[in-house]
Protein: NADPH-dependent 7-cyano-7-deazaguanine reductase
Amino acid sequence: MAGRSKEETGDITLLGNQNTKYASDYAPEVLETFPNKHPDRDYFVKFNCPEFTSLCPITGQPDFATLYISYVPREIMVESKSLKLYLFSFRNHGDFHEDCVNIIMNDLIRLMEPAYIEVWGKFLPRGGISIDPYCNYGRPGTKWEQVAWDRLTHHDMFPEKVDNR
Structure:
C-alpha cells in the first residue's frame, strides 16, 4: 500500500488489488491480517455482514443471513476485504446455520487469537422458521473468559419480533 510500511500494513495483498478472485467454495486461506496499532487497549471491532449466503447441506437451497462478528483484538486484526472474500466463499458451501457461525468463529480465532470474539447469524426464515445461532469465545485465563460466559448466558434474553426481517 502506497506510503505505508510493512509494519503498519502487515501482509495485506487483497486490499486495492484490482484482480480479485472469488473462491467458489469455502476458502479460509484468503483471510489476511494487519498489526493492531492499539494492542494496549481493549476495544471492540464489529462487522455487520447483511448479505451472507450459504447452502443447505441436504437440499442445496440457499440460506441468507445477516452475520454480526464482534471481537476484541490483541496483536493482529482481520483485514475487511479478505473477510468479505472469506464470507463469500460460503456461497456455494453446504453447512447448517449453526456450523457456519462456529466455523467462522473458529477460523477467526486461529487467525487472530483475539481476546474475545462472538459471531451471531440471523438467518431468514425458510419453511416458516428462522434460526439465529450465536457463539462466542473468551481467551482462557483472562477476564474475557468470564465475559464470554456472561454474554452467552444472557444472550438474547429479549427476543425480537419475527416481523422485523
Notes: The beta strands are 33-35, 45-55, 62-72, 76-78, 116-123, 134-138. The chain has a mean pLDDT of 89. The longest strand covers residues 45-55.
